[in-house]
Specification:
With 279 residues, this protein is an alpha+beta fold. The protein folds into four domains: 60 residues, Nucleic acid-binding proteins (OB fold (Dihydrolipoamide Acetyltransferase, E2P), Beta Barrel), CATH 2.40.50; 60 residues, Nucleic acid-binding proteins (OB fold (Dihydrolipoamide Acetyltransferase, E2P)); 69 residues, OB fold (Dihydrolipoamide Acetyltransferase, E2P) (Beta Barrel); 67 residues, Orthogonal Bundle (Arc Repressor Mutant, subunit A), CATH 1.10.10.10. It has four helices and 18 strands. Strands 3-2-1-4-5 form a five-stranded antiparallel beta sheet. It has a five-stranded antiparallel beta sheet with strand order 8-7-6-9-10, with no helix packed on it. The N and C termini lie far apart (76 Å).
Amino acid sequence: MLEIGKKQKLMVVKKVEFGVYLGEHLAAEASERVLLPAKQAGDAVSVGEYIEVFLYRDSKDRMIATTATPFISLGQVAKLTVAQTGKFGAFLDWGLEKDLMLPFKEQVYPVKQGDSVLAALYVDKSGRLCATMKVYPYLKTDSPYRKEDMVQGTVYEMIENMGAFVAVDDRYSGLIPARECYGSLRVGQTVEARVTEVKADGKLNLSVRQKAYLQIEKDAEELKKLLDSFDGVFPFTEKASPEVIRRETQMSKNEFKRAIGHLLKQGYITIQDGRIRKA
């Protein structure tokens, strides 16, 4: 069976002036053959020889073979560069002569020429290969990572009540839960994260923060900078609501309390009259 979007070994069943026709076997019918153009085939190939090719559709929507290896195959996820934009979407450079279509409906944010986007390859209803930035269904759950491993990935979706969805190694399914979303995480951003849990289904829970005893010093330094921006006085203490603390410091209440305790021991701050002051 000829499979579009994949590499497969096919046999040369007929040579013509403009290339060679390939099929699964020598007796393949005309409807079971695909053309490999002459500039791809070369002069040395002979009938009965097997050639590894990738199948896609050309500019006239005909299935065609190429010996070139694209940057992505069917069902895979990869970062591709936007070659240009058009009336119906964007076109991605995927290493073949004809650029890959990324329809508007498959974009999770507007893209422009030169952007690098995380995308998966699929076959649309008309049988054409297209790209989608909605990569969740295409990510794998068999990563080699374990709890406390440090990983790198791309944020591909943000959902307020759930968190930041991350493609670890641009390949594996990961999530930074909402409670762990600190700072200005955004779609398309590359993040360094720590694996906090490998779930039963193989998906990874992540945190952009280190373990508590390692994070205290870093948080304390961040609070020093923040305190300076508040002219040396926080108009709240560790007794403030978790919402206020997160809004003002990008820390959880427990993390804020630990960092404040650390600064108190250093003698860097004092707490009085419902305020934290630089000593």
